[in-house]
Amino acid sequence: MNWLLVVLGAVVGAPLRYLTDRAVQTRHDSVFPWGTFVVNVTGCLILGLLSGAAAAGAASPHLQLLLGTGLCGALTTYSTFSYETLRLTETGAGLYAAANVVASLVAGLGAAFAGAAIAQALWA
């Protein structure tokens, strides 16, 4: 049963990542990888909310597998973030690469903390 929950979450998360990335990136005429940035920060927010809900007893282990491991695991992408940062440096866009690393770290952590705080406010 557990593996099925992970698979179901991933079945939604992977296409959602691709479609969101394409939709966001086509709206920005920039070398900055906005699509990957958006899906990663969104995944951090969802995981923060889920973690906060679980800590408050409002999210079951099954929901954690479905949304946390499955959906967020397929939605977010550290490998693409790393690859895009590498490509930015290789093409001479070092400032964009540095901005991608700093902004992704700050926004991702901020989103996770915000999600946990929202969950605590809702369920604590």
**Uncertain segments:** none
Main beta-sheet annotation: none
User: Which range best describes the helical content: under 10%, 10-25%, 25-40%, 40-55%, 55-70% or over 70%?
Assistant: over 70%
- Helix count equals 5
* Mean pLDDT score: 97
Q: Care to count the β-strands?
A: 0
Helix and strand pattern: HHHHH
Q: Give the radius of gyration.
A: 16 Å
Q: What is the CA–CA distance across the termini?
A: 29 Å
Shape: globular
Name the quaternary structure: single chain
Proportion of residues in β-strands: under 5%
Q: Based on helices, strands and strand pairing, what is the structural class?
A: mainly alpha
List the keywords.
124 residues, mainly alpha, 84% helix
What's the SSE blueprint?
Layout: H1 2-25, H2 34-55, H3 61-75, H4 78-90, H5 94-123
Summarize the entry for a quick read.
The protein has 124 residues and is mainly alpha-helical. The protein is built from five helices and no strands.
Protein described:
- The protein is an all-alpha fold.
- Helix content is 84%, strand content 0%.
- The protein is built from five helices and no strands.
- It has helices at 2-25, 34-55, 61-75, 78-90, 94-123.
- It is globular.
- The two termini are 29 Å apart.
- The mean pLDDT is 97.
